[in-house]
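User: I'm putting together notes for a lab meeting next week and I want to include a structural view of one of the chains we've been expressing. I don't have a solved structure, so I'd like a prediction I can at least talk through. The sequence is below, exactly as it appears in our construct file.
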Amino acid sequence: MKLSTNYKILLIPAIILLIFSLGVIAINYASTGTIVDMGIDFKGGSHINIEIDTVDQNIIKQISDNFKEIDNKVVVRTSSGIGQSIIIETEKNIEMQKIKELLSTSGLNVTNEMISIQFVGAALGSQFFKEAISAVIIALLLMALVIFLTFKTIVPSFAIIQAAIVDIIFAIAMMNIFGIELSMASLAALLMLLGYSVDTDVLLTTRLIKRTDEGTLDERINASMKTGITMTTAAIVAFVVLYIFSTSQILDEISIVIIFGLLADYISTWFGNVGILRWYIEKDNKKDDVGEKIKEIQPIKKNIKQQTKNKRKTLRKKKGKNR
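Assistant: Thanks for the context. Below is the predicted structure for the 323-residue chain, given as structure tokens.
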């Protein structure tokens, strides 16, 4: 695959992707007050796990209808990891006896031993969210420091970090579109995405900036693409398989968020990052060309200056003889 040699054209898809992602996030913020919908882990609420032998979808629907009388935003789902279970997530703090009553009216009789409840207060959830944001910021700063120390130039380092940020922004936008809430699992996926995103960008930057003896600029870009796209595609295939065959909600959330981010990485790296690096390298080469021309001109100027000086001396001598 041969990309355009015009860096301005290369940047267009990456800019469109970023504008689309920011637009989706802005719409969600305008309607909900948050850039991404919060899960129980961050907004507070109850996580109720009910272990059962078999799952009847009619009963699941009835449970959902009954719990919606208490909380209209309740989420009822099933999990079939090690054993069958019904998971209920609600913003309300519901007592054990009330849970058993609602389950009984839904046609499901359970004992206390079959039910486990985890409650996260709103204040604690808010604290978790602040710590999560801090973790993402610290991860970005440390990553930026390591990359800058590696390449020792601002523009290529910025290009790598911006590509990773665009991938995360797109993943968050897709979470809003598909109704995936921010939870501990999806947050872990976003942090993992940083590593996956930076891999291909570091590969590209190393080939273009440090290995200048491995062919022309276009040849180095094409060689990087073959390796980088293979890496990203292999990772996407692995997470698609995990998403299809997984019976864990946590693994589903992790895999789908990473898939979203890696799909964005095709554009942020091979259009956005390539465009920035091509502009930087071409600009740097022009400076080198100007410097070389100046070096070539300097001896000529020096020679002309010396010849002029010699002519003046000769003229002075002639004038002296004539007198």
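A couple of points you could mention at the meeting. The two ends are 80 Å apart (CA to CA). The longest strand covers residues 45-52.

User: Perfect, that's what I needed.
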